[in-house]
Amino acid sequence: MPTDAESTVLVGRIWDPSADGPSPVIVRNGDVFDVSAQYPTVRDICEQPDPAAVVHGLDGPRVGSFEALLANTGASSRDQGRPWLLAPVDLQALKAAGVTFPVSMIERVIEERARGDVALAADIRSRMLADVGADLHDLLPGSEEAARLKDLLVAAGIWSQYLEVGIGPDAEIFTKGQVLSAVGTAVPVGVLAASDWNNPEPEVALIVQSSGRIVGGTLGNDVNLRDVEGRSALLLTRAKDNNASCALGPLIRFFDTRFDLESVRGLDVSLSIDGEDGFRLDAVSEMARMSRDPEALVGQLIGPHHHYPDGAVLMLGTMFAPIQDRDRPGEGFTHKVGDVVRIGCPALGTLVNRVRHAEDCEPWTFGVRDLMGNLVKRGLL
């Protein structure tokens, strides 16, 4: 949990075996309380005029300690008779923004030019950085300066669709997964067995109301298959939307006087990967180095042009693009089954997942129809 969890109230979701369905919960002083009687879905809490104030005033039956639920969530043999944690959002659309950091923009161009070939990518990277440079942090996407750079790159023959969304007027915002398909902390995340070049993407995810107002945040892992997307950008959904490929959590922190959008802009999101082969990787994604402001991204997501009646969660992108060699020189990084991925920052806690093949992760079977039916059966809807 966040380092100052004792002075704030956090929101999450659990699977409640006694109800045979999910329940919104609040976490206060390490204890978990079921608030489904007042708010059947997390979406209902998020749509309130002041979600933080609402959450601070909520109470309900104690489910147990957060530690106990977390332990049962990650247990190799889960006790199906006791509750466990889920992803902290439910009816919100699962959205993600891409190419929002200059360094990841460069890596996307390299992926495209290498067509998924890891060895070729290393050569392209060294030549491209010499021509373009890696520090485009001060360049405002869509500005006159960005347009002039675009003209120069086109003339040099190195323009790319990734540079278009990186410095052009329109951001890349895509659907990461279907409603209710996200996984939470302490459970596996999935990469396709056929992929041999992939990586985690440690990100901050904003909680956005249907009105477009940003009301809170959580952590996300926008798992990416670099070889698949590198073959063609039209394979984005194949690269991004697979079983257990969207992880969110552990909990939602709503904005208040202690944590707000300005806090998000200054966050440093840490990443660590520990492999069963002894491999270790550490990195940090600095939100201050985003080329597009979070509020501007939300403005492109929701507005007169597009509406989300149940709100959305928007992953903001990452500056993490791993090039550290794992096995042989020049082959860069890719996941292996068993990798433990930790994404964290003091204000939002830590999201922890172990990597498996998507085909071997627990299948997603509980959809919107199941949720509505369960809530009706419980007299909550």
From TrEMBL:
Coiled coil: none
Superkingdom field: Bacteria
Record InterPro entries: FAH (IPR051121), Fumarylacetoacetase-like_C (IPR011234), Fumarylacetoacetase_C_sf (IPR036663)
One of the record's GO molecular function terms: hydrolase activity
Keywords: Hydrolase, Metal-binding
Family: Belongs to the FAH family.
Protein name, per record: Fumarylacetoacetate hydrolase family protein
